[in-house]
Design goal:
It is a single chain. The chain has helices at 95-104, 109-125, 138-148, 169-181, 183-187, 204-217, 229-239, 243-249, 252-255, 269-277, 286-292, 298-304, 315-318, 326-336, 342-348, 354-368, 375-380, 422-428, 451-456, 459-473; strands spanning 3-12, 25-34, 37-43, 57-60, 65-68, 70-75, 128-135, 151-158, 190-192, 195-196, 221-225, 259-263, 280-284, 308-310, 406-409, 435-440, 443-445. The chain has 479 residues and is α/β, with parallel strands linked by helices. It folds into three domains: 3-68 and 394-460, Urease, subunit C, domain 1; 70-321, TIM Barrel, CATH 3.20.20; 335-370, no CATH class. The strands form three sheets. Strands 1, 2, 3, 4, 5, 15, 16 and 17 form an eight-stranded mixed β-sheet that branches. Strand 16 (435-440) and strand 17 form a beta hairpin. Helix 4 (169-181) runs parallel beside helix 6 (204-217), helix 14 crosses helix 16 and helix 15 (342-348) packs antiparallel against helix 16 (354-368). The longest helix has 17 residues, at 109-125. The N and C termini lie far apart (55 Å).
Length: 479
C-alpha cells in the first residue's frame, strides 16, 4: 500500500541554494513514498484538499513541518566510545597519530559494529538521516547502520603507509565492493565509497587501486585532505607538492567520479582552484577542528567555487552528532574575524578611537559573508549539497527519486515556537527536541509523537547499549 505524507508545511526547493532565502519554500504538499525513495511530490494550492488514489495510506501531519532529514557529511560513528575523555593533552600535537591510532589498534571488528550502533542512534535522535562514514572494518560499520536504520555512505578506511589499517587494505577494498553489491544495504539507504585515509598514510599505488574501483563502480572517493601540518610537511618533502597538488598529479582529481575531502585546513588558494576545477567537494567540521586543529577559512572555499558541506567529525573531538549545531558556527563567521582584527587589537591595547574602526570592520565582514549566513544557504550545507555527491542516489531534498529521509517537526514545541520563519529556526536553533516523527529510506523511525522516548525505551536500543557498554569495559584506553 503506497504511503502518502501530507502536511500544510513542506520544505520544497531546488537541489542547491545559490540565491539565498528564495531558494527554499514552505508550502502545502503531499509526498508519495515508493520503498526507500520519494515517488512523487504533489504541491497543493493553499486550502486545496488532497485527493488520494485508491489504496493510498495517507498520513496527515496537519501543520507540522515536513523537512529533509539532516546529512552529516563526515563521521566516524564508532569513535563515540571515546566521548568525554579529556583530550587537552593529546590535542597539543597530532591527535590522530599520537592517540587515535594507538587506541584503534585495540578495537576489534565486533567492537566497531557495536559502537557504530550507538553513534547511529545518537545521529537519529538529532534528526540526522544520512552520514558519510569513514572507518575501519567497513563491513561492520555498514551492518551497524543497517541494524539501527540509519542510512549512510560507508568508506572502509584504506591505509598502507601507516595507521591501524595497514594490514587490511585488501580486505577493505573487498568490503567496499561487497557493500556496493548488497541489495539489502541499498534498500536501507546504505551505499559504498572508496576510503583512502589521507595523503600521508596511503601510497600512490593504493590510491590507484581505489581509483580503479571507483571508476568501475561509479563510487566516490571519501578521504581526509590536508588536515594537519604534518601531512602538509610530508607531502612537500616526499613529492615536492602540496597534498592537493599531489592528488591532482596522480590522477585522483581527474579520474574519480566524485571526491569528498574532509577538513582541507592546509589548502591554499591555488589548491582551492584545483578542487573547484574537479569533481570535488570539501567538508567543514568546525567544532571538531577547534579541538584538533583550527577552523578552515570556508569563506575562501565559497569564493573559489568549491562545493562544501558540514559535518561533526567524531564524538571524541566534538562530543555531539548533532550536525545542525554546526550551522551556527558558519553563520558566526560573518563577524568572528573582527575579534582578531588589527582594529580590535588596537582597541584592546588602549586606543579608544579603534572602537569605531573595529565596528566598521565587523560591518564589512558581515556584508562580505552575508550570503553564506542566509538560512537556505546554511541548510543546503546539511541537505542538498552533500545529498548530491554520490553518483548513485540523491538525498537532502523532498523531490521525486530522492531518498525518503524525512523529519516531521512540531512547530508548537518550545524548541521551535513560535517559528515565525521555520527555515530560520532550522538554521539557527537546536530543533532536535521538536522532532515528532522521522522516516529513513522510507521506513518510520520510532513512534510518532513519542520519537525520542520510543527509541530510547526500545528493546533494540537497550540491547545495543548493553553490548557497547560491555565491550567498552574490556578496552584499554591508555596510551
Amino acid at each position: 500500500m503506497p504511503t502518502v505524507l501530507l502536511s500544510r508545511r513542506v520544505v520544497l526547493g531546488p537541489e542547491a541554494s545559490s540565491v539565498g532565502d528564495a531558494a527554499l519554500r514552505v508550502v502545502p504538499a503531499a509526498v508519495r513514498l515508493d520503498g526507500s525513495t520519494i515517488a512523487r511530490v504533489h504541491e497543493l494550492a493553499a486550502g486545496a484538499p488532497f485527493v488520494p488514489e485508491a489504496g493510498d495510506d495517507v498520513v496527515d501531519f496537519g501543520d507540522k513541518l515536513l523537512a529533509p532529514a539532516f546529512i552529516n557529511a563526515h563521521t566516524h560513528l564508532a569513535l563515540g566510545f571515546l566521548r568525554g575523555l579529556d583530550m587537552r593533552g593529546v590535542t597539543r600535537g597530532n591527535m590522530v597519530e599520537e592517540f587515535y591510532f594507538k587506541v584503534e589498534r585495540r578495537v576489534a571488528p565486533e567492537d566497531v559494529r557495536a559502537f557504530t550502533r550507538i553513534g547511529a542512534y545518537d545521529s537519529l535522535l538529532a534528526g540526522v538521516g544520512l552520514v558519510w562514514e569513514h572507518y575501519y572494518a567497513g563491513q561492520e560499520v555498514a551492518e551497524g547502520l543497517a541494524d539501527v536504520g540509519l542510512s549512510g555512505v560507508v568508506a572502509p578506511t584504506l591505509q598502507d603507509l601507516s595507521g591501524p589499517g595497514m594490514e587490511a587494505w585488501e580486505a577493505q577494498l573487498e568490503a567496499t565492493a561487497a557493500i556496493d553489491d548488497s541489495s539489502r544495504f541499498g534498500g536501507r539507504g546504505v551505499f559504498a565509497a572508496l576510503g583512502p585515509h589521507a595523503t600521508d598514510t596511503v601510497s600512490a599505488e593504493l590510491f590507484g587501486k581505489a581509483l580503479d574501483l571507483a571508476e568501475a563502480r561509479r563510487l566516490p572517493v571519501h578521504a581526509h585532505l590536508a588536515q594537519s601540518v604534518e601531512e602538509y610537511r610530508r607531502a612537500k618533502a616526499r613529492h615536492g607538492a602540496t597534498p592537493t597538488a599531489w592528488l591532482e598529479r596522480i590522477g585522483v582529481l581527474e579520474r574519480s567520479p566524485s571526491n569528498v575531502f574532509a577538513h582541507c585546513i592546509y589548502v591554499d588558494r591555488d589548491d582551492l582552484g584545483r578542487l573547484a576545477r574537479s569533481r570535488s567537494a570539501s567538508v567543514f567540521c568546525p567544532y571538531s577542528q577547534l579541538v584538533f586543529g583550527f577552523p578552515a577559512l570556508v569563506g575562501e572555499w565559497s569564493r573559489a567555487g568549491v562545493p562544501w558541506g558540514l559535518a561533526t567529525d567524531c564524538a571524541s573531538s566534538n562530543d555531539t552528532m548533532n550536525v545542525q549545531r554546526e550551522l551556527r558556527f558558519v553563520a558566526g563567521q560573518r563577524t568572528l574575524g573582527t575579534t582578531w582584527s588589527q582594529e580590535y587589537q588596537g582597541f584592546i591595547a588602549g586606543d579608544p578611537a579603534a572602537a569605531e574602526a573595529a565596528w566598521r570592520r565587523r560591518v564589512g565582514l558581515c556584508a562580505e559573508h552575508e550570503d553564506d549566513a542566509a538560512p537556505s544557504r546554511l541548510l543546503s550545507r546539511v541537505w542538498s549539497e552533500p545529498g548530491k555527491w554520490h553518483p548513485k542516489f540523491r538525498a537532502g531534498v523532498i523531490a521525486p527519486g530522492a531518498l525518503a529521509n524525512l523529519l516531521v517537526l512540531d512547530l508548537e514545541h518550545p524548541a521551535m515556537w513560535p517559528a515565525h520563519e521555520p527555515l530560520q529556526a532550522l538554521a539557527m536553533a537546536d530543533t532536535a527536541p521538536a522532532i515528532w516523527a522521522m522516516f529513513v529510506a522510507g521506513r518510520a523511525i520510532g513512534s510518532p509523537g513519542a520519537f525520542h522516548e520510543s527509541i530510547l525505551r526500545s528493546d533494540e536500543y537497550r540491547e545495543a547499549h548493553r553490548e557497547a557498554r560491555d565491550r567498552l569495559a574490556k578496552l584499554d584506553l591508555t596510551v
